[in-house]
Amino acid sequence: MNMTTNANDGVGHTGESIAVEPAVTDLPGHYLVLGADHPMRLVSGQLLGPFTVAYQAYGELNADKSNAILVCHALTGDQYVAETHPVTGRPGWWEKLVGPGQTINTDDYFVICVNVLAGCMGSAGPKDIDPHTGKQFGLNFPLITITDMVAAQKLVVDHLGITQLFAVIGGSMGAMQALVWAERYPEMVYCAIPIAGAARHSAQNIAFHEVGRQAIMADPKWSGGDYYDKNDSPERGLAVARMAAHITYLSDSALHTKFGRNLQDRQAITFGFDADFQIESYLRHQGRSFVERFDANSYLYITRAMDYFDLAAEHEDTLSSAFKDSPVRFCLISFTSDWLFPTSESRRIVHALNAVAASVSFVEIDTESGHDAFLLDEPEFFRILGGFLHGASDQRKLATLS
Amino acid sequence: MTPAETNNAARIRIDQKLIADMIATGSRVLDVGCGDGVLLDLLVHERQVDGRGIELSQEGVNGCVARGLAVVQGDAQTDLHNYPNDAFDYVILSQTLPAIFDVKGVLGEMLRIGRCAVVSFPNFGYWRIRYALAVQGRSPNSESLPYTWYESPNIRFFTLTDFTDLLAALGLKTERIITIDVKGKANTRGRIGHWSNLLTEQAVFVITRK
Can you tell me the ipTM of this complex? Predict the structure, then answer.
């Protein structure tokens, strides 16, 4: 991404920059206004700025600023990695992995996580205010790509005075961001750890996302994305989208083990359409609790960003070209029962990295937890990730705080 | 004193120690079939090599990555073709050749992606093996052939002489041969004669393109 205001790559709009006025929020963490002097050019060609990003940080940056780890969150994640979530009150999504004494030890590392562009936890997104109209953007918010999300993160890293991140790590959509970091800013990344990821969103993945989007758009309360001042959002549609997506995060065997055909609080089927089965009740609960913390339009935008992701496409369909002469040490991790981002997608990246003789570690973790495994307590995953980080920090002779 | 005298000293095999001793400091190394990474670990930490590994078993790979080694899960017979020409100074294949189906293909790939191929293998011409088969009438076992016939991953049974014949047929150059006898004594050989084929339990070959 270039940040110059006068560059004209001939794509999309030019001219006036899109300013984003953040919605009023009392969410904890750090906020940074970006693109005020030099708007950021989005991949779509549009200019963005000034706009706000929200990020959270744990641990302390050491004197030479060499101990920073950027955690990239997934589709419905956010910057509250290792603390009680301010909206749901539930533990941080990677609290088992990130924290004092944990695998990603915040006594040693300075851990940053930025809420992605188009997100709804404080970074610029469709629920923010368009100063021209004084109304929420809704679908007038510009389309965001994974590359744009990373470009905004880079501005945060620059702002913190960090010239090289020790590691960029993320699962699922976070893995896509880690790959873009390694591709776009290889000198700024000592090691990249894409977990349960892919270098492109597959047709099947796009298909599932489209089902989710159509569920939202089919909810009359969605109103073409213009629902914010109606105090009534498309919760039903968003909940259905979440339910469908949630199935893709689990495996058949995990569902069978956890729920089987067990009935929910009843002795027999009711010959009706109540949630007779535990799995139904579970999915309904997943849908209901999701809408409390997520914006439907953000869901549209972020799923679209994932759909558009195809790293090889920018390199004449040769993925290895994206990583030619890369100094980055890669560690890829996949999970056996993950059918959403299957091992074959990670292996494709490994082969591309081998083709340019990049330094790459690759493990497939045996688990029945499906795609969600990267969010769960998987001892073998933690052991391997910890070992890789330890080895990499040895190699870098990292001056840690402890 | 020697690289073998590390924490790994107890676990490192004699052929791995000999291989480690012939790898130049700071070189680029690919260990094909690197197992639990003992040799690679030693090379990376004692010889400061830029070391990579491929290992078939998931357990081996996980162990390697957990100790900070750049190892990927893969198969020597299908995955070497992903690497570019001359990516490495040394491509190591220790005690894995007997389990390889396409021996010629793998040797060719090793020497495409690497300047030198370093290959160690058990000698099927070793006298104890001949004795087991000829006199005892049993499938042979030795320290470097520890498997029972029904569990062995090995599918190629070849002698030192067989191997030198193959190298000659492929037009490859033998830079160095080290033979190891039953007591673990290593000898550098100019060529393989009848006696060394009889007395050598395992050997390490350094091979280059002509």
Answer: 0.88
